Amino acid sequence: MNKLATAINIIKSVGLADGRPAKIKALLVTLYERYNHHRLIRPDPLQFVYHYSKPADMEIAAFLASALAYGRVQQIEKSLNNLLGRMGDSPYEFVINFDKDKRRTLKDFKHRFTTGDDISDLLTLFRTIISRCGSIEQYFTLGYNPGDSNIIPALSKFCNSLLDIYAAGHKGQATRGLKYLLVSPAGGSACKRLNLFLRWMVRDDDVDTGLWKSIDKAKLVVPVDVHMSRLCKILGFYDRKTVSLSAAAEITESFAEIEPTDPVKYDFALSRIGIVENCDGHQRSACANCELFEFCRQGAYH
After folding, report:
1. Is the pLDDT of residue 72 over 80?
2. Cβ distance 189 to 212 under 8 Å?
């Protein structure tokens, strides 16, 4: 049982708790109302999805933006401007017409340890599945079962099937770089970047696009990075030392106690404290004005 559920049970059975779950709910609602606005998306990589108006272009841009969402924010922005600039006005047209000339266009691209060849291998796979199914969404739903408790089984099938397609044409092996872009939760990874992509595609509000209509947002898993990990420890949602698939599932279960039909609703707003307000887990003068200060002071975060 997760920590928030335990706290709720204590309230019901003992009546001596301090109302912590209600305080957390109120906190998250406040953060959502403050931060969950389209004008506040930048510097989030999601900003690049809205450079396009056609859903087919937005879907491709979203996957690439989430795939490169690791490292410093400034470097992510620089790399995505570089990559999408090479792809021209339509990422979708670039993908469906991907060939040796376009591979050469990306040859010297690099974002940390993701190379132009890694991106080219990914886009070649996208060309294949789009030609078969029409879109990334339609391919993803081949492995989606609405009866599953969450999106993890579908995400595993998606990643593993793409890697299998690549391996079939390359002596049974997928490259390390491609595996990083399509890391499967089957190996225990929290899959922050892929869960971020799914949040962007499935949820529909002033921040998230809602382009994918075939996936239930209740099945999404929280994209857990160092910022979200730290903030969720402050809230008492989990206390694991590493960010793993188990940790992401535990955090998601805690959010589901608050929003059962939309457990990832507060991800963007809560992460602004780390990204925009520069919270690093160490106390400083600005902490007194932070919504989480009461929870930090109570010793929820160690």
Report:
1. yes
2. no
